[in-house]
Amino acid sequence: MGSSFHSTCSSWTKVVLFSLSLLGLCSATAIEVSYDQTAFIINGERRVILSGAVHFPRSTEKMWPQILQKAKDSGLDAIETYVFWDRHEPVKGKYDFKKNLNFVKFFKLVQEHGLYGIIRIGPYVCAEWNFGGLPLWLHKIPGIQVRTDNEPWKKEMQTFVTKIVTMCKEANLFASQGGPIILAQIENEYGNIMSGYGDAGKQYVKWCAEMALAQNIGVPWIMCQQNDAPSTVIQTCNGFYCDSFQPNGNNPKNPKVFTENWVGWFQKWGEKLPHRTAEDVAYSVARFFQNGGVLNNYYMFHGGTNFERTAGGPYITTSYDYDAPLNEYGTLNQPKYGHLKQLHAAIKSGEKIITSATRTETSVGNSVNLTTYTSSNGGKFCYLSNTDGSQDATVDLPNGGGKFFVPAWSVSILENCSKEIYNTAKVNTQTSLMVKKVDASSAHLTWEWMAENIEDTLSGKGTSTENLLLEQKDFTLDASDYLWYMTTVNINDTSSWQNATLQVVTMGHALYAYVNKNLVGSQFSQTGGNFTFEKPVSLTEGTNIITLLSVTVGLPNYGAKYDLIDTGIVDGPVKLIGKNSVSMDLTNNSWSYKTGLNGEAQRLRKGVWKSGSSNNLPVGKGMTWYKAKFNVPSGTDPVVLDLQGMGKGEAWVNGHGIGRYWPLNVAGSDGCSQTCDYRGAYQSSKCTYNCGNPTQRWYHVPRQYFSNKENILVLFEEVGGNPQNISFQTVSVGTVCANAYEGANLELSCEGGKMSKVEFASFGNPQGQCGSFQKGSSDASTSMSVVEKACAGKPACTLAVTKETFGAQQISGASGNSNTTNINRLAVQIAC
User: Fold this and answer.
1) To bridge 7 with a disulfide, which of 84, 202, 218, 550 should be the other Cys (CB 3.0-4.6 Å)?
2) Residues 344-358: pLDDT tens digits?
3) CATH code of the domain covering residue 512
4) 759 is an active site residue
5) Same domain for 654 and 547?
């Protein structure tokens, strides 16, 4: 039945094969994983799989259990993650699998929560991760060309893949060993850029599949975005929509797999925040399963944080929230989480039918299609979709199926093809409005400060010298964002150079220029690409020292041969342009080099720190270190660091890298809207918000980073800022709102707190939206009292949205038929 993968266990483990839901009871019992066009088959049970991406390094070990439990509670079957080569092998042959890099522990927790695992070994990951997850030391290997049919690359890639597979086998993580992992991925989205590698790329894909299969892991391998994937692996789809995707003909048994359903989009410095609605994500999932989908994986289910300098790009932000169902801090992003949870329950209610049934398609109106799954015993399960981006529809289903209202750009799921149990456009779950509260103990921090000591580099003293301009990442191996370039110029006649111009062509993302120890100017790329720096300089007779500081903000992570994209002032040219356009080319001068900051080398806390009153605190000065002790915010709510007022730099708490910060980088002031129309195809620029504000103001500080003793915050401020308004804040649900349709069961929760006050409640035809609800022409007089009795003073409550609950009579003009548009709704707003 399709392709089958099975490993033999010792005799005592073969007594019985448990279902995957019992994985936690016996990790030594083999699990057989196979597949065909309509199902994954796990120990003979035909399944559709709902999965979510959770990247273990983007959270902490103590966050993992709550994230996994919430994923489980939402109805997911599986957790998917990449493995990050650059973090696991930062130095060739020296591995790190400790703390939040302990992927073995992560997958064991996945199993303990009764979930499957999907491991995407790559080892190229993209993921908006620095350098796509590849370690920089690869560039030092003679003759290497990454991600192509190149022997040095294939040797290193195979060594790492084998290392990860061996660790998985030793921990019994593959399903064939009784573990949670049911799928593994080799390479990543290579088909998107394969043409850039020519025939060598095609040979490389074949080698990848052969190398992966030779690992003998006992579960299927997948390749995403690879139209010519060999028949031995499963070809899969990534995107906002994959309902029209069909696996290639190399293996007619391949199931339809949606490896990455992008629930939002990543964020770049200087851009507005993108938002993808709950309705549209649900639509993409329902359409996928309507058209024969077998596995949907949300990218991301929990996005998390790009700690330290792991953000790629260039210009990817520290937050990797991704508008995911679980937000950056691991709390529920409502209504997206709840709306998808209800979708999962609806899909699973038909799982046994859709995985072993015949499927028929019927057009029942303009852009309205009925998909009927019929099992051998007569059971039926239907999807009714309206793919029009603006026009609602009311249709009569054939054979007396009933009359249904289907909003534009929506899918209804019909139990027994006669009763609507879910519609993607009808959100019957709460919206949570989050609030940030300043922690009193950290509202006024006492600061110490220290100027970055740059006397050595301003004097031209480096650690090595070359007669050319070097490429930045090859020299630094990304040990720091900063690389100093230093040279000297002898001027005999100042008449031609008194009003000279320094011209630097750079592939870096920012540049600071000093002449004779004086800062002459700085410049940032608008998009993270190359630019030309030109500033007037004053040269003196004799020796002049030119010091250039090149800065990167995340290395490229995507594209054909992205690893060859230059950074820094490589090749220049660097010129001095004098009177009458006379020029002096310094490109092939003798250049000295130094990687990083002295403060970085001193492990952040060392050095001579100054203290005093706020009147003495240096503000608006670049190249400055700040340090403050603080008390841990009380409670258990997530903690963020508000860095409003700062410019650009990096932050550490107790030595843990919180990431790059850049509040000075403000999004454009136009193009945002208070509302977002979910209808029609989504793209990352469709629904944006946060216009005119810093791209990122708040930075997640996991509670695991705090100490019971002394807690220290360290900042390196690159361009100049004012730390006096910095504070630690807690994030919690401030208000819950909902506008649920009649017939729904509405679940409300403050997620950890209690619902203190019902601010609005109306059952009938309420108007407006959260924060501005108003009663309509129809309203049940008991609305407030019913909601107050059920919810006030409680951490959670459930309301049956029915006339019986509210004692309401038939609303004038509404039929009460849940299949039509004219039905009652319950609008509520509750303060937490």
Assistant:
1) 218
2) 999 999 999 999 999
3) 2.60.120.260
4) no
5) no
